[in-house]
Amino acid sequence: MSLTRVNKNEKIKTTYRRLKKRKNQQLSKLCFNAVVNLFYMRYTTLFIFLKLQKLSINSNVLRCLLLEESGTTSIFNYWLKSYRLKKY
């Protein structure tokens, strides 16, 4: 094989790797934004409901809800990091 052909093949492989990495980064950002939006929507609707109904909520219940949501996001972030490490 000639040297130019080898260089051309390496350039193609490098370009493919870069595009794959960029695509995966965009996908991970999209997934993270979806989780953040879900978190925002849940708690916005919860607080609007409480405000409109003029209900009092026990601090323990709110603390449990926040812990559950933060646990979900931390598990999602851990999964996302491990997925990236397996791909690259």
- Low-confidence stretches at least 5 residues in length (pLDDT < 50)? none
Order of helices and strands: HH
For this entry, what is the oligomeric state of its chains? single chain
Mean pLDDT: 71
Based on DSSP secondary structure assignment, what is the total number of beta strands?
0
| Morphology | elongated
Domains, number: 1
User: Approximately what portion of the residues adopt beta-strand conformation?
Assistant: under 5%
Rg over CA atoms, rounded to whole Å, is: 22 Å
Helix content: over 70%
Distance between the termini: 29 Å
Q: Pairing-aware structural class of the strands and helices?
A: mainly alpha
For the biggest sheet, the summary is:
none
Given the structure, what is the number of helices? 2
Transmembrane segments: 30-50
Keywords: Membrane, Mitochondrion, Ribonucleoprotein, Ribosomal protein, Transmembrane, Transmembrane helix
Organism: Balbiania investiens
Protein name: Ribosomal protein L20
Description:
InterPro entries: Ribosomal_protein_bL20_C (IPR035566). The chain crosses the membrane at residues 30-50. One of its GO terms (cellular component) is ribosome. Keywords: Membrane, Mitochondrion, Ribonucleoprotein, Ribosomal protein, Transmembrane, Transmembrane helix. This is Ribosomal protein L20. With 88 residues, this protein is an all-alpha fold. The chain has one domain (22-87). Helix content is 91%, strand content 0%. It contains two helices and no strands. The longest helix has 51 residues, at 3-53. The model has no long low-confidence stretch (mean pLDDT 71).
